[in-house]
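Intended use. Records like the one below are meant for learning the mapping from a protein sequence to its folded structure. Do not use them to infer anything beyond what is encoded.
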Amino acid sequence: MKKILILCLALVMGAGITVAAEKPATKKNVTTVFVTDIDCEHCVQKIMNNVPSLGKGIKDVQVDLAKKEVTVVYDASKNSDENIVKGFATLKVKAEPKAAAGEKSEAKK
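Structure written out for the chain above:
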């Protein structure tokens, strides 16, 4: 009986070690440049002071007022471009990913 219990315990511990040894989900950081409608230093400060409004997983935000662009680095497992655009909307800032903005301007030609 003791041998069976020890064998079962060893199997359970072995299974636990195997599960623990699996690779954890890798966090994939994504960098997206958003074209915005910002036009003053106040708009820049509004974005920088409200980074949590952009959503979860935000790692870095950089604002370029001259180009009217905001570069956002975020964890793709926790956020997406669409959610970040919604986050900008809560700050009353119109934004769209730069690639999408380029596609729209090409469509107008």
